[in-house]
Amino acid sequence: MLDFSFVPGTFWFEAWQARFSLLSGIWVTMSASALTILFATILGVAVGTALAYGWWWLRLLARLYVDFMRGIPVLVLILFTYYGLALFGINVPAYWAGVIALSAFATAHIGETLRGAVESVPMGQMEAGKAIGLRFLQRLRYVILPQALRRMLPPWVNTGLEVVKGTTLLSIIGVVELLLTNQQIVARNYLIVDFYLFAGLLYLMINASIAALGARLERRFSYLRY
Amino acid sequence: MADDVLLRAQGVRKSFGAVEVLKGIDLEVRQGQVVSLIGASGSGKTTFLRCVNLLEEHDGGEILLDGDPVGYRVEGGRRRRLSETAISAQRARIGMVFQQFNLFPHLTAEENVMLGLTKVLNKPKAEAREIATHWLGRVGLAERRGHYPYQLSGGQQQRVAIARAVAMEPRLLLFDEVTSALDPELVSEVLGVMQGLAESGMTMLVVSHEMLFVREVSHHVVFMDQGRVAQAGTPEAVFGNPESERLRSFLGRFHGMFGMV
Ligand SMILES: Nc1ncnc2c1ncn2[C@@H]1O[C@H](COP(=O)(O)OP(=O)(O)O)[C@@H](O)[C@H]1O
Ligand SMILES: [Mg+2]
User: Fold this and answer.
1) CB contact under 8 A, B91 and A130
2) Which residues contact A130 (CB under 8 A, 6 or more apart)?
3) What are the coiled-coil residue ranges (chain B) (predicted)?
4) Which CATH class is domain B32-44+90-253?
5) CB-CB: which of A125, A131, A223 is closest to B148?
6) What is the share, in percent, of chain B residues with pLDDT greater than 90?
7) How far apart are CA B172 and CA B187, in angstroms?
8) Structure pTM?
9) Domain ranges, ordered by start, for chain B
10) How far apart are CA B163 and CA B132, in angstroms?
11) By the CB < 8 Å criterion, does B99 face chain A?
């Protein structure tokens, strides 16, 4: 890899040849990750709120969902969403099957984290909100969630990192994301070490950016002290 | 009702599990009055305030605010629990200041005061800010309006909490031992604000162990003992002529303080 000559069979040449596939792979990985994190954050807030404040039957449903999702391997979830649904005549494109499966998985994690964060906000906050006449959803939106979301920032970043790594599993149902792209390139030129190392570095860079974003958000909300 | 009774509690009962904490509380607060609840720890003072503000639901008796039952309406002779919206509307007419301040830590002093004004009373932001500035000034914190709670002392936080409650223009303000969590040297700044409110005609129901303050500011004092009203009357009557041994011994604990008067 440290050989910089630009002829067929060298890393830089092969990488340049495959630049469009690589960019597309990076794009697929990043977009699937971003969509998953977006969906899972929205749904996770709903699931976490249900866990913390729901009527008993809603809490039970949310609890079953979370425990189920956390108990089965993500890969099984992905395979089920892709092949399993097809058996019922529901055909979801591989990319979307993957995003749905990963979102379902990450929703459970974010939901559970949010429940913990919400419950760590002192009781007095909810009561102070009641005392000025805020309705339940207003208390949630203006009083509880801002504090809970700040508290769950570190585990939320962790879930984000897991999701990015989890997108590699989409290669198994044929989504040409970053890993599968590299596999296909390696199949042509046998530069196994070079391209897998390259893929690893790219994942590392994506995740380092997410971690940096998380750190920035934490600084941004550092006034939220207790 | 032709009289000026703002809050009327009749036979209010409340149990936690098998333990009856309130055993039939009768109490009246008239418009513009300061009524103080005193009594040993565990006698049910906090629970009563929480029932008034619907943070707890009472099991029996009734609590009327401006003649309306708090927490339910009577329909065909039966009690029906009010909707969440109606309960919130009732709560907005009653302000409450807590022992632990309970300021919103993610909002500045000004934003703490503005939240209810904009979201509950639907006032435009500019007007809410004006009101917040006014009340923060009244409690002596005009310069601190951009500060977050963690940047304020306990006494300052409690004054912001008072501003937050009173800015809503409630019919009634509830105070639950609002100086108990404060360092002794910060107590007087909070009591001073409360005294100012009382003098401006605010109707207040106050739980306090600050007997000097209670004696000086209250129109009416209620001594609670084990979930009952054991004695009630003017400060002169309650402090000057305690009828029961329990009230005498309760007041005896504050003897040093009275010696200073
Ligand atoms: N949520 C609750 N669950 C069970 N018991 C409670 C609860 N709140 C208060 N109590 C009990 O009710 C009694 C009265 O408490 P409280 O109203 O806080 O008294 P006070 O404010 O006069 O000290 C106490 O014995 C207390 O332990
Ligand atoms: Mg108490």
Assistant:
1) yes
2) A139, B53, B54, B55, B88, B91
3) none
4) alpha beta
5) A223
6) 84
7) 22
8) 0.88
9) 32-44+90-253
10) 8
11) no
How far is Cα A106 from Cα A48, in angstroms, rounded to an integer?
12
**Closest C-alpha to ligand 1, atom 5:** B16
Evaluate whether B191 touches B20 at the Cβ level (below 8 Å).
no
Of the candidates B212, B17, B176, B112, the one whose C-alpha atom is nearest the C-alpha of residue A134 is B112
For the record, the structure tokens of B175 come out as 């105070």
Q: What domains appear along chain A, each with residue ranges and CATH number?
A: 40-220 (1.10.3720.10)
Residues 6+ apart with CB under 8 A from A193: A1
Hey, what amino acid is at B132?
A: A
Q: Look-up: residue for tokens 């196994």?
A: A192
Q: Which of B55, B93, B168 sits opposite A130 (nearest CB)?
A: B55
The residue to which tokens 């000086």 are assigned: B216
Residue B222 forms beta bridges with which residues? B37, B232
DSSP B234: -
Task: Name residues whose C-beta falls within 8 Å of residue A132's C-beta, 6 or more positions apart in sequence.
Answer: B91, B92, B95, B115, B116, B120, B164, B165, B168
Find tokens 């890899």 and name the residue: A1
Q: Supply the residue whose CA is at minimum distance from atom 9 of ligand 1.
A: B47
Contact call for residues B97 and B178 (beta carbons, < 8 A): yes
Q: Indicate if ligand 1 lies below 6 Å from the C-beta of B45.
A: yes
pLDDT digits (tens, 9 = 90+) for B104-157: 999 999 999 999 999 999 999 999 999 999 999 999 999 999 999 999 999 999
Quick check: B119 and A138 CB within 8 A?
Answer: yes
The pLDDT-based confidence of B2 (bands split at 50, 70, 90) is very low
- Coil, helix or strand for A208? helix
Q: Characterize the bridge pairing of strands B60-65 and B68-69.
A: antiparallel
Pairing between β-strand B34-38 and β-strand B19-30 as defined by DSSP bridges: unpaired
| DSSP code for B70 | S
ipTM of the complex: 0.91
Counting from 1 in the atom list of ligand 1, the atom nearest the Cα of B224 is: 22
Nearest by Cα to B172 from B26, B47, B63: B63
CA–CA–CA angle B180, B181, B184 (5° rounding): 75
